[in-house]
Amino acid sequence: MHGSPLFPGTDFSATLSTESIITYLHSVRNKRLAELSRHDDALMDLLEELYNTVAISPVKREFMKRDLAELRSSSLDLAHYSSLITEIKKTGNPELAQSSPLFTEEMKQIFRKYGL
After folding, report:
1. Helical segments of the chain, H only
2. What is the pLDDT of residue 68?
3. Digits of tens for pLDDT over the chain (116 positions)?
4. What SS3 state is found at 63?
5. Is the pTM of this model over 0.90?
6. What residue segments make up the domains of the chain, in order of their start?
7. CB of 79 within 8 A of CB of 37?
8. Residue 70 and residue 72: Cα distance in Å, rounded?
9. Which of 5, 21, 32 is nearest to 88 (CA)?
10. What CA–CA distance (Å, rounded) separates 108 from 71?
């Protein structure tokens, strides 16, 4: 049984439908986005890691947080995540999502709007 922190006790190998994978990925993405939207330190830590940026204006930070919150309320871009969905379906291991760079790539699209 694989299970996950978001779906404890879930046997993904037995019920690994594309829909369940999409739901799981959406939950993982939204959990990360919620953390970044709520905590300035988490957002700044990520920006420092990705761009070596240690300071941005409070106004820019608030706009980024707003955009991250909007992304959180949007549906998953299935074209963007298709390779991960396929890999999870093939291996039966939803934990692959935890190390996937696709979540970060999606956030980078937002950060690019702000010159990062």
Report:
1. 12-15, 18-38, 40-51, 58-72, 78-91, 102-112
2. 94
3. 445 555 555 555 556 789 999 999 999 999 999 999 888 999 999 999 999 988 999 999 999 999 999 999 999 999 999 999 999 998 888 889 989 999 999 999 999 999 88
4. helix
5. no
6. 12-112
7. no
8. 5
9. 21
10. 12
Amino acid at residue number 83:
S
| Structure-token pair, residue 96 | 């692959």
Q: How far apart are the first and last CA of the chain?
A: 41
CB neighbour list of residue 61: distance below 8 Å, 6 or more residues apart: 40, 43, 44
Residue 7 pLDDT: 57
Give the Å distances, CA to CA, from 7 to 22, 29, 50, 78: 13, 14, 29, 21
**Which residues, including other chains, have CB under 8 Å from residue 22's CB and lie 6 or more apart?**
76, 78, 81, 85
